């Protein structure tokens, strides 16, 4: 196996390349060269020439020919399309290219043998003629190996399967190879509070006015209490050091955040349930003493919430997401249109949107206790590092406007997740050691935050694009942020010798320095130009234009039994007619546990008032208000794009206006003074906006899909709806559009 160690950052490796024709035959053009960038510590493990990459598997066999390589960092397909200005992406990631897949981003690999797909794992006896790679960011790559030499096929397939699917040691991650020699020339902190010092915690206590009842402690310095706890954390003032040490931090209420009225949000790691009687009695007596420090009726009240019994288990969350993501890992156009016929039933059966609704509902319940009842809330979980992180983060996003700024949200992730001890390494299964530990807990949080962002855009300084690239960054092993289970694990692996025997500490990068991934123009899409600097009254939303090729992204108000020949267009028309005729809409889709009267009163009362974008925010959680995160889950599917539509059309116009205003300001300054500030920050001007679609900025305008291979009667039903859709007087917003 050929192994090259490349030391420059990055260095250029020229590879001969041949360009394929649309026919997919073996006729190729003249050899060309492309530049392939390799990072410090990146090893080229195997490669294969004359690999054909399909643009999409739709029967046309259109694609391009090139070289497929596998390194210890990524799988990359090298062709010359990047040389064309027309294909240059507007939102280019400087680390991971359009045809790059980091090894941690690979979800599953299938081989095609005689038109039959087979999951590839372990040692292979027979090698496929086609390779299909499903990615965790929901991209799908189809590679034809029919024209590749047999020996190269064996090497590349075996190499990709081995390096992306088999268990590995922590220090074998590219994170360590890069950090051992990477230049430490980036300011990863920016304005993000890292919460790795005692001063950071004291500042947070002062910011939230929690320093009256709570204190930052140094008891765990040297990790003498527990390796799962951070070096510094906050506890009630009355809790002694002996209490913290007694059960290695278990049974100790750890402070998360304080409300403006003094009520606090706390979390606690529970004792194991299976204990002998004497131990249980001792632990119960210990807990009773702890509770008295934070519950002093009638002045201080405490509500305890065991999240393991009130929310879905991690296994349920993993199962639901596994089913959900299958709806978007589309091999071909035919499969996409086939799911249309039963879209609602498939979406509902995954239970993913229902889990999001339940989590948001729980966060509202906690907010009610803090805001209206002035009651301390103690979240309890076995390790207090999974669902506790989700609920505590959501509550702070809903109640603290600082957490809705970009730096505030990043600081929140640092506090509750990174320093708080969420097991990113296990939950993301970066090492492929145990599928049982895998669960998309952090993705669940981002999905819940997205619901708030799309419901109240002016309340957030960041955009849905920011959330999307943050979710992508989970799988980029250049940043240490999402590749450790705890602060202790990171600290113990930061010092020592690296793999190539070079001694000295590793210089890990943090994901919060976005300049590492994006240039300033691309970073403009992470910031919300319509962010409300001051509280503003809620304004009635204008009706958005209706697009014919629009997949409804939320479940209908009532589950309907429709003919198997009806797709989502027919479903939308049925609801349109019902609304026009004024028929009563059925009950909301809710779980069997109806909200209490107190919760419903709090929920309805808040939604009946104008929105204060810098105050408390409560998400809409009934029925179709919970939607699919379109940008993340549909961005790679050409059939789902809205030509010239989607929220990006509005964003592009706003950015155009902002640059025009800035240009006018510069001209005015030039007229009044010759000494002008040389560095004027500008945002990208999207002059070619006609080419945009709802998939932008992650994909440019793509081809129209061929006519769906649906039953003739079904296709006729879809075409017959054109006239009805065009009637302006019958337009009704079904709350199901892409956001």
From TrEMBL:
Q: Does the keyword Cell inner membrane apply?
A: no
- Residue span(s) of domain Myotubularin phosphatase: 195-633
Q: Does the keyword Manganese apply?
A: no
Signal sequence extent = 1-20
Pfam families attached here? 3-PAP, Myotub-related
As for subcellular location, the record says:
Cytoplasm, Myofibril, Sarcomere; Sarcoplasmic reticulum
- Recorded GO CC terms: membrane; sarcomere; sarcoplasmic reticulum
Keyword vocabulary terms for this entry: Cytoplasm, Sarcoplasmic reticulum, Signal
Q: What is its main location?
A: cytoplasm
What are the recorded Gene Ontology BP terms? phosphatidylinositol dephosphorylation
Q: What family does the database annotate?
A: Belongs to the protein-tyrosine phosphatase family. Non-receptor class myotubularin subfamily.
Q: What is this protein called?
A: Myotubularin-related protein 12
